[in-house]
Amino acid sequence: MSTAAASPRWVDRVIGSTQRARVYHYTKYTLYSFASLELLAVLVNLPQWTTGGAAATVVMALLVLLHTAANIQLTRLGMRWYLHEGGEGAPEWPGRLLMAQAVLTLLVTGWLAGSVATGQAPITVLGMLVSLYAFGVCGPSLLLSQRQLWAGLGVLLAVVALACLIAGTPGRVLLVLVALTGFLLVTMAFTCRVTTWTLRVVNKLDAARETEARLAVAEERLRFGRDMHDVLGRNLSVIALKSELAAQLARRGSPAAVDQMTEVQQIARQSQQEMREVVRGYREADLHAELAGARGVLEAAGIACRIEDGGSTELPVMVQSALGWVVREGTTNVLRHADATACVIRLRPPGPGGITAVLEMENDGVRARTHGTPAGTGLLGLRDRLAVLGGALSAGAYGDGDTDGGTGAGDSFRITATVPVMAAPSHQAERVSA
Question: Where does the Signal transduction histidine kinase subgroup 3 dimerisation and phosphoacceptor domain lie (predicted)?
């Protein structure tokens, strides 16, 4: 049985998710672990409280457990609140839960200070307050503003100092506890906020990348629409006018109507030819230009792209056009369907004894297609286009990751197009260009 088959479903979902989702899961569970460390740290020191009795020990453990649960829930809500910057999509501000955590903090602090003051516990149990305060600040640090957070940290330090005074802590020990608590409070609050801020930046970069891809598609559509308008706009206006004139002449019984319709026919044929030239220019891509364009688009999207051009300009025009479409469609797939960090486009022209050109595109960051998601038609169209020239297309994910010259990623996708250079008859070439 393979490792992937034996792994839990939630692990498969995390591994097969997008890069942004994996960063989110990593950040979330890291902060959860920070929030839960207070329970571990307090329970490790709890056995020192032997003189308090079993009942008191159990009650203290329950209070700390509730405090940790509230902190983890505040961390979960705080991440969502911070990522949405308190705007649309953010959860309701958990004011009651914050108050409950504050009350639990005061109960544990007062109980510890009173136990030490009455001799029911050694002074060393005050070290539990350091863990309770330092790790308990994870959730609130994401929900409070900077001014509120600094004010809250000052109040917490004052409470720690007051508890140590009530417990009769010596001056040096009091200073050490307050200084250590203050240092860890600032460190943990800063770590939680900066970590979540980094995730917010990643979300914005990912949204900008998707916007850039959509704008590139929209720009291409506008260009094609502008060309079609420039070519057909004038001719269609002339056809409409001459058709109207021919209709009026025909009602009058004038033989000039035939001449007008003849001109309409000529203009229509000319428009058809011009439209074919526009479409042919759009569909017959210059392979060398497509390779350069693919690198520019991918690098603009933050994807490292390496081009290994073995001689694109030496291939026949129809072969260049077909392979240029492979590059164009493959680039679109990388932008829309992958979270790639690297892409390699490799062209191997026919050797001295060969007649087949081979184009390979490899990228990492493969997204797992969820069940029920329909497959796209882009690759099917490429197969049909290459089949006209006697070529073939294969595409699929692979996990070797150490392919010579590859991307070096474990979850990668490869498109391989092969086209016989000398096997495309002239009538087939006309079908592709049309």
Answer: 220-287
